[in-house]
Design a protein that fits this description.
By secondary structure, this protein is of the alpha/beta class. The chain has two domains: 4-15 and 91-220, HAD superfamily/HAD-like (Rossmann fold), CATH 3.40.50.1000; 17-86, DNA polymerase, domain 1. The protein has ten helices and eight strands. The chain has helices spanning 17-31, 38-47, 53-60, 68-80, 94-102, 115-126, 152-161, 175-184, 198-203, 216-220; strands spanning 4-7, 14-15, 89-90, 106-111, 132-137, 168-172, 187-191, 208-210. The strands form two sheets. The chain has a six-stranded parallel sheet with strand order 5-4-1-6-7-8, with helices on both faces. Strands 2-3 form a two-stranded antiparallel sheet. It is globular, with a radius of gyration of 17 Å.
Length: 223
């Protein structure tokens, strides 16, 4: 019996997040006078996906270590300005879905986003209901090795909410989401609104694959 439904955030509840992050990193590099080939830039970002923005920038600036502090500051300005949030949209009805699910399950979030961005900007901006019992983000974890795909974030949520892995599902859009769920012993559900396509999700051994998060209730009713 499923008791806990934990979610990734970006490109699960909001769409456009992947491109929004790319835009923030790209603008930060440009402002610091760093010009990488676009594919190199995206590959380096994706290689650290789910890690903190500082870990991503460190990867981006492998040949320009002297620019790290400057790019950190430029990225923060882009992210906390309007570059990120203006690129986001949500599926109609997500708020009502969450309100309905909260009456039956414990809901939580394990995300690579920033807690302040989620709680103070995105959640109010889109009118998300106050239904999440716990929000854990990679920016709060000092040890980068404990971010996705490490099970730490999901383990922490399960421990705090006093549920077992076989009572838990994790809904995400990326390979690291699936791996975190599998490493924690929970059941992964992939939404095809972000990084993974159906074939890639199936290759990871995922049984439950949905087009977008609004389809999650039908899967939960099967479990």
């Amino acid at each position: 019996m499923i008791k806990l439904v934990a979610f990734d955030w970006d490109d699960v509840f909001v769409t456009g997040a992947k491109e929004a992050y790319f835009a923030c990193y790209h603008q930060a590099l440009e402002k610091a006078g760093i010009h990488l080939e676009l594919q190199v830039e995206r590959d380096r970002i994706l290689s650290k996906w789910g890690k903190s923005y500082k870990a991503v920038i460190d990867e981006l600036l492998k040949e320009h270590h002297n620019k790290v502090a400057e790019v950190y500051a430029a990225y923060e300005k882009e992210f906390w300005g309007n570059t990120f949030i203006d690129a986001l949209s949500i599926h109609e009805g997500v708020q009502d879905l969450l309100s309905k699910l909260s009456k039956k399950y414990i809901l939580a979030v394990a995300s690579g986003n920033e807690p302040k961005m989620l709680k103070e900007r995105i959640i109010p901006h889109f009118g998300f209901p106050n239904v999440f019992s716990q929000i854990v983000t990679s920016s709060e974890i000092n040890d980068h090795e404990k971010t996705k795909p490490h099970p730490y974030m999901l383990d922490l949520i399960m421990k705090t909410q006093n549920v077992s892995p076989n009572e838990t599902v994790f809904v995400g859009d990326a390979k690291t989401d699936v791996q975190m769920a599998q490493n924690a012993g929970a059941t992964p559900i992939v939404v095809l609104s972000g990084h993974l396509n159906r074939r890639e999700a199936e290759k990871l051994g995922v049984k439950y694959i949905i087009d977008d998060v609004r389809d999650v209730e039908a899967v939960l009713n099967q479990l």
